């Protein structure tokens, strides 16, 4: 099955097809380079061409033409994802949804939107039109698209209140186009949503999303400092368990993350200060102050509604989730990260154990999240990278201790997730993408069903590095 | 200290003073009669006069005049509370806040309101002006006042999401007038709120409240039926633990409560059906249906947005909290109730144990609530009343098993609560009500500091029954 690139390009030439090599190179990359492991393996990947559909009809046309000519299609939004989820493993077509950015409708509690809309623009639209905003979003809010977030994300800012994207009620409806001789348009709700959410566009292309909204508040961005890491965890978790206090994020940073990597926070903290980043609804600020007054080991060093800091530190969520890693990388290119889940109710003991295990090598960065109604922590630990072997060992030590790892140094859905196939995604891929052309190389169970996960999966059809 | 009623009435005669005996009798009663124990003790209580202030200045004047003439002042809203909290134990003045019902300001997330505003009117105002509504309210929403709810309530409809009124952030500010020679006007926030919230007006009169609001949705009222009581508990608790599903209430009724006492539900359930009452945001309805589809033992028998029931059952919350007791009382005057707290994480086992202990005598009615971030149940058990001794025994058996009882068959703050004095309320009463004239008889620690709680407290200065 050799792709006929030329035929596909010719057939699509009336659309917005990008042929500039520099632009193709840019559109062939996402934020895979957060991982030194993926950087070594994916840096060379390149699409043959990029096409930017303007509407669903053009998406259908692109999928139909590429199906006919056996051309792989890797769909992308802004390309801010990690895990190499938008990298064209076999070249071919990158379908860029930048033009499909319209908000179709919004009302309090609900929005209908196209996938290419930036999270930031979507929020601005919803706040202006109905006083609501997204329940959750990635820390790349300013540059990422809503379609990319749902296709690749699992949660983020807002998960401290609303749980994960996969939880019931956090996605209402997805409209999806299949890649067949005659592409079909399907509407998924309820149980069916799991087929295509967090599937990296491997089994269908999302052309419309219906999402729940939450009330928009003039969130107060806060930093709390403490010499005591356990007190910092207790601050984030305790606040998240205050049912009357509205939070959008509660992040914990072990010392010296704030001093070393948070440039505008650095002058206000010491080397040994742990930091808590918070977004608190204005009507909950009295409650926050009361909560902190009960814990003299905590100091509210910054609140955006009342500050004398000469330099505005900006949005607190742009210190959290994977922006922490990004900030650290700017100061120390050898830094990478892990995604860890510390399950309730033993999360704090497990975190302390991991903290004690890797002094100077792993720095704790935690995000308070709700999982099945209970507050616990997701870790996006900062790791001083030495070798792939040591990274794998660090992961193994975490797993042996009972921490779940979502390995961001893998490019397949299975290895970045729970290390086993998702039958709902797999069976829908067999139906919706019979030729296996949608974002190839990302679903092991489709390509190599008997894979045993003993080592990193090496997609056999990956475009080889040029000599 | 003999009250000079005549002098006080004369001094207040330019205000709206009620002298009609029938109206005084009505204003001297609340919903104490839910309890046969309180009915036997409080039915005779009668104020000497009723006064209805129009504003805070008149409140100050009334308190100053009554202080001067040693006249007790019992403040009331609509008088829908239980626990006899608005009953004039020593007669004197009942101050009725019916005219102080203005909404001062509202914005998304926050309202400022006078205490006499009905919860229903407050919600209507907020929904119309800013698209928000109260986070929580009592099932007597249609007739109760916001001041009475905060002065006497602990939570209610909405507590499944927002926890209790006493939780940080669920009250922002209270403005309070003291009863001294020169009454003071104080503003309480943060830690100070605990002095006067849930204090029955024993140590200050609330003249203004600032409360947080939640977004208003077109809540879908639902009933779910099941033959399996454990499945009904799991339904309410499981939904409350779904972080992406927005609930306003999740009530559980053991069979045959629905068949026997819920007139408009009765034709749609069998004698052996347990019932779950739910209010679900419209954007969460798909999630509800998905949740129920996973549990075939549960049947969605009613949803207000799509129903063929010939008779509208009305608002689901008017079946819950203490409306359950009210509905049962209409069919069986021998019914009374208990307020029980089943603490996480052993709540379900404890409930099943209590359910097995009192067959035919105690019927389980549960409300899912959040306590310190965890979902568990409050019980408002329906009790077939025989004698006070048996009622006390039932309470003791609950307590011995580990269930906490908030005894609604007592009229003091301590006995209806945690059986010990609240030092914050007591010390503020000593300061704000030095003559002990505010709602006398309701704070044991003020009147009888060495009380040992071995038996029901009998306020020595209660107006005696006439022979």
Q: What is the CATH architecture annotation of the largest domain in chain A?
A: 3-Layer(aba) Sandwich
Tell me the number of helical segments of chain A per DSSP (H or I, 4 or more residues long).
16
Strand order of the largest sheet of chain A: 14-11-13-12-18-19-16-21
Radius of gyration of chain A, CA atoms, in whole angstroms: 22 Å
Structural class of chain A: alpha+beta
Total number of strands of chain A: 21
Quick one: overall form of chain A? globular
CATH superfamily of the largest domain in chain A: FAD-linked oxidase, cap domain/gating helix
Question: Which fold name is given in CATH as the topology of the largest domain in chain A?
Answer: Vanillyl-alcohol Oxidase, Chain A, domain 3
Helix content of chain A: 25-40%
Quaternary assembly = homodimer
Q: What is the domain total for the residues of chain A? A: 3
Pfam family, one (chains A, B): FAD_binding_4
Keywords (chains A, B): FAD, Flavoprotein
Domain FAD-binding PCMH-type (chains A, B): 42-216
GO molecular function, one term (chains A, B): D-lactate dehydrogenase (NAD+) activity
Kindly describe this structure.
2 copies of one chain form a homodimer. Chain A has 3 domains: 5-98 and 426-462, Uridine Diphospho-n-acetylenolpyruvylglucosamine Reductase, domain 2 (2-Layer Sandwich), CATH 3.30.43; 103-216, Uridine Diphospho-n-acetylenolpyruvylglucosamine Reductase, domain 3 (2-Layer Sandwich); 220-402, Vanillyl-alcohol Oxidase, Chain A, domain 3 (3-Layer(aba) Sandwich), CATH 3.40.462.40. By secondary structure, chain A is an alpha+beta fold. The first copy, chain A, is globular, with a radius of gyration of 22 Å. Helices cover 29% and strands 21% of the residues of chain A. Chain A contains 16 helices and 21 strands. In chain A, a hairpin with a 2-residue loop joins strand 5 and strand 6. The mean pLDDT of chain A is 97. In chain A, the strands form 4 sheets. In chain A, strands 14-11-13-12-18-19-16-21 form an 8-stranded antiparallel sheet. In chain A, strands 5, 6, 7, 8, 9 and 10 form a 6-stranded antiparallel sheet that branches. Chain A has a 4-stranded mixed sheet with strand order 1-2-4-3, with helices on both faces. Chains A and B meet through strand 10 and helix 10 of A and strand 10 and helix 10 of B.
């Amino acid at each position: 099955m050799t792709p006929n690139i030329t035929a596909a390009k010719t057939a699509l030439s009336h659309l917005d097809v990008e042929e500039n090599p520099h632009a193709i190179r840019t559109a062939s990359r996402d934020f895979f380079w957060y991982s030194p492991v993926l950087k070594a393996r994916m840096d060379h990947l390149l699409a043959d061409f990029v096409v930017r559909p303007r509407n669903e009809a053009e998406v259908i046309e692109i999928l139909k033409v590429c199906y006919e000519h056996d051309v792989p299609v890797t769909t992308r939004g802004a390309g801010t994802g990690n895990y190499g989820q938008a990298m064209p493993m076999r070249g071919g077509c990158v379908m860029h949804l930048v033009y499909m950015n319209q908000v179709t409708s919004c009302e309090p509690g609900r929005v209908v939107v196209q996938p290419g809309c930036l999270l930031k623009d979507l929020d601005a639209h919803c706040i202006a039109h109905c006083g609501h905003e997204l329940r959750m979003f990635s820390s790349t809010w300013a540059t990422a698209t809503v379609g990319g977030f749902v296709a690749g994300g699992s949660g983020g800012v807002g998960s401290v209140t609303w749980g994960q994207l996969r939880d019931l009620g956090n996605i209402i409806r997805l409209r999806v186009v299949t890649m067949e001789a005659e592409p079909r348009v399907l509407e998924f709700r309820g149980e069916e949503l799991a087929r295509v959410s967090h599937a990296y566009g491997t089994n269908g292309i999302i052309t419309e999303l219906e999402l729940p909204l939450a009330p928009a508040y003039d969130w107060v961005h806060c930093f709390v400092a403490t010499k005591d890491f356990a007190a910092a965890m207790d601050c984030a978790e305790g606040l998240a368990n205050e049912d009357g206090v509205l939070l959008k994020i509660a992040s914990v940073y072990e010392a010296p993350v704030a001093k070393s990597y948070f440039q505008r926070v650095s002058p206000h903290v010491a080397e040994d200060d742990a930091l808590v980043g918070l977004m608190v609804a204005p009507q909950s600020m009295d409650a926050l102050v009361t909560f902190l007054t009960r814990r003299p080991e905590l100091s509210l060093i910054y609140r955006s509604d009342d500050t004398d800091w000469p330099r505005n530190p900006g949005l607190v969520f742009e210190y959290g989730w994977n922006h922490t890693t990004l900030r650290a990388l700017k100061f120390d290119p050898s830094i990478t990260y892990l995604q860890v889940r510390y399950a309730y109710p033993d999360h704090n003991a497990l975190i302390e154990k991991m903290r004690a295990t890797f002094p100077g090598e792993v720095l704790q960065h935690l995000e308070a999240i709700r999982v099945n109604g209970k507050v616990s922590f997701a870790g996006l630990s900062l790791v001083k990278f030495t070798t792939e072997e040591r990274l794998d060992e660090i992961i193994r030590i975490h797993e042996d201790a009972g921490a779940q790892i979502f390995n961001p140094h893998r490019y397949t859905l299975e290895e970045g997730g729970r290390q086993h196939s998702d039958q709902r995604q797999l069976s829908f891929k067999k139906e919706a993408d019979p030729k296996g052309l949608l974002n190839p190389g990302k679903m092991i169970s489709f390509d190599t069903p008997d894979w045993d996960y003993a080592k990193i999966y090496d997609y056999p059809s990956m475009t080889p590095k040029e000599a």
